Please model this.
Amino acid sequence: MRSKICLIHDIGAVFILLFILFTGCASSGDPGAVKIAVITDIHFLDKQLAEEGEALFAYERATGRNITDLHAALEAALDDLHKEAPDLLLITGDIANHGEKQSHLGFIEKLRPLQNHGTRILVIPGNHDINIPDAKAYRGNKAAPVETVSKEEFAELYAPFGYSDALKRDQASLSYLAGVNKSTWLLCFDSNRYSEHIATSITGGRILPATMDWALDILYEAKDKGITVLGMMHHGLVEHMPYQSAFFHQYLIDEWEKNAGLLAAAGLKVVFTGHFHANDITMHTSSDGSVIYDVETASLAQYPFGYRIMELGDGGLSIDTRFVDSIPGNPDLAAVYRDKLEAMTRRAAKNRLEGLGVPMPEETLNALTDVIVQLNLMHVKGDEKPDPVMEAAIRLFADQMGGAADPESFTFDFPPEDNRIVIPLR
Model:
């Protein structure tokens, strides 16, 4: 059974709610191994849509994203992938910044060299990719509306990236089945709600009942044929922290526990996800004892700028994580953007706490804010292990709570390890 956070109920729930809101591959030696890379949440804004001026400056101030830095970080990751020459690159959504058609077109051009070099690329949309009513360009003094893409246009644009050579296509969504090799399939789930967009994108996700039936039929077929099935989707399939489903369900698919159980029991072993901009791996055991792993990868648009390089072989799935720490012109990229994330989280956390209307001494407010900030910074990079600063913040918070919070029992990171692990598949 998973460990629980030992805090008094009300403050503990507030704590987790606020925290969530802020928010080289080891060779297996197997000659038949498949090298797989994962990137996600690129939020690519094409340079044609971003020209110096007040509109762009306002966007960058609000988001903490410098477009030049983000383009350079993406280039650094793609350059590394070009050297690694993976057999397969998976992109789990939020490709465009906010649905701009030109950003999709520009990103596809970024992928061409890797594709031409022999890497097969498979994509799935995220909640910022399709039918975005408020897609914008940032030129001059004011942001202006720009063309977005429909569901059909997305599939046409990304036809060479999974849709044109799919083994099967779902009729209810943009989900599809891809073959990895003779013994492995990849179920690519469309978990988005773009048909419901009215004013802007919807953060939450779900798997349509018809899509789930389609996926289960595939899994049953695979089990009969002795084929291993992996998956990918934008939204999380499994909880990555305590209370996530209760307080920030938008980062999980609806009815996650039921759906994760169904997919695990039917034979899905691993699902690659994004959306939460954090590097975390978690696992779920279904009622029949089947285990499924949710491998969530960090965003390339925010600290820690993470991506995965893996090997799929007879021994299982070997996962390594890499981070873009520096770029030309900004050797301190990681430190600069860590500071940006810390400052944004601190402002947001303190404002939210003060807005709750719950009386607390200033020292308690500051202690709780520090814990939230430090947890967020550790969680996004994965393998959270409290450092002396974090331990001091937790002790201070425990003191302010009069001993009701037990710092020795404070556990946040669900097993297994997040950044380097071998997942058994058989």
